[in-house]
From TrEMBL, chain A:
Membrane topology note: Multi-pass membrane protein
Claim: Amino-acid biosynthesis is one of the keywords in the record: no
Organism in which the protein naturally occurs: Marixanthomonas spongiae
Keyword Iron attached: no
Listed InterPro entries: ABC3_permease_C, MacB_PCD, Macrolide_Exporter_MacB
Listed name of the protein: ABC transporter ATP-binding protein
Family annotation (PANTHER family): ABC TRANSPORTER PERMEASE YTRF, MEMBRANE COMPONENT OF TRANSPORTER-RELATED
Record's subcellular location: Cell membrane
Transmembrane region(s): 21-41, 286-311, 331-357, 377-397
Amino acid sequence: MFNLERWQEIFETIRKNKLRTFLTGLSVASGIFILVILLAIGQGMQNGISSEFENDAANRISVWANVTSEEYKGMNPGRRIQLDNQDYALAEAKNRDKLEYKSGVYSNWGVMTSYKGETGSYRVEGVRGDYQFLENESLVAGRYINQSDLEGYEKVTVLGNRVYQDLFKGKNAIGEYLTMAGVKFKIVGIYTDPGGEREETRMFIPLTTAQRVFNAGDKLRSLVFTLKPEENFEDAVAASEAFSQQLENDLKTRHTVAPTDERAINVNNSLENAKRFYDLMDMIRWFFWGVGICTIIAGVVGVSNIMLIIVKERTKEIGIRKAIGAQPLSIIGMILHESVFVTAIAGFIGLIFGLLLIEFVGPLIETNFISNPSVDFGVAVTTVIILVVAGAVAGFFPAYRASNIKPIVALRDE
Amino acid sequence: MLYFSIMIEIKDLHKSYRTGNNSLHVLKGINFTVSEGEMVSIMGSSGSGKSTLLNILGILDEADEGTYHLDGTEIKNLNERVAAKYRNKFLGFIFQSFNLINYKSALDNVAMPLYYQGVNRNVRTEKAMHYLEKVGLANWADHLPNELSGGQKQRVAIARALASDPKVLLADEPTGALDTKTSYEVMELIQGINDEGKTILVVTHEDDIAHMTKRIVNLQDGIILDDSEVKQVRAKDAMKKALAHV
């Protein structure tokens, strides 16, 4: 391997056979390049899908009520079911040791809001303090709704970052008052949500205040919970499914809804959705690996094809070399050494081009489903090594056959 | 003439080729000896077995029966490795179609046998240059074979054959692809090499070329028909004669 004479011989051969070297290199480099891009897109899709789930707490369970769709105990279908504080209190009391975060929600859409001449129409949600974690929000400034706000029916609000930008244009907002549905609210905090703008065009106020301001009595739009973490994902899915089922049954009993009614009470379990998406993601990952492995196989076949052609093309040269005293082993060595050198260099060039493309173009690709495509460098280098080794193994057989060619046969081959 | 020692000795050599169910008996018992410093031509029509004989002598092929001694070493049942070593050590080849490596310069072609002897690069270049000078192509050292004329290519091939300082030079129709004038020039060069004491075997079907050697072995249907010493025609004289005709 470190025989200087051999290296000189190989460099000379490469220099004198630029086209052949270029074609071999091109097939290897493009194979690796495609593989790197594929793996990166796979990773990007995984990132994209994962980020879709960052909107809300991953194990969030939400409950809405709707109209009944089945006749039950003498009552007609089409009856509207209304959730209220009592539903929340019962669910909370029954599952106190299982719940991690919990909140009832009363929300209103399109609430006219103004601050010193700037106006906008936003969604306002009355919530409890836990809602920050249920929505996976983090505070940019100030504080969130707290227990004393709820008890004192305080007129305080936490703005979404987007609302803040719209109304305040970057000026200080904490401690200022804005008018919401004709009532003045004091701004106590600003939040940001990984879900982006759509999730940030909202304002939160204490649930009790909301029910009073919007004249809602003890009505609730929805109930939102998360369960305490479990040891593993499977347990968490099982626990949250059991909880969802029990909650649904309790609510149906209380509101006299048929147990088979699918529409009246709606329990949405994110974890179950998440599981479905994680399964999908696994499939996507397997798919990309499958395609990647096929690409490598195609690459190996390509390399060995080229090796075969090279050996065929060099049959006469090999015959000449043998006639003037080349050992069979030195023929094998010469061909393999050259091919391993070319494939390795080409492989790394393909790898570098792929990585550069991802580095510079990757961040520009920001769709809902692909974000920050990247590739594990270790995996990429491993594939290059696999390709080189496989290419060498594939090339060994034609090289071995070449070394066994009788010189007279090779020399006769015009 | 004074012969120093026996260089090639073959006894009762047989060779058959098998193609499908047919067996073609090409060499049917050849006995033949060449001493050091001889210049022998092997003649015969096509199919007489002369190329087969040369391939066996050149350790490119192996006989079915009989013995072959080259410079006192028995050539028998050699594996590829040893065969390659003996070829490199004992033999220099000159082919009808030159068989130069076309992506290597004349100098590198000549240096190639030395590479396989493990000679280091500087010595290789120096020696190869020396032999190129000997065949009169020192100024063409950096040229690729396809930039050379047929005669020049064959000279490079001769220089390459000489480079490893072999015991025997084997030439297979060395002038087969050349015109008369160039043929004579090449033969003049080969004669000069023989004059310096190198043993040379030439396979040819051309009578005038055969008569430029010192001994003619006539092969027909796999046996030696006739083996006699002849008066050597110097290529230089033949050339003068040929030019006088024009």
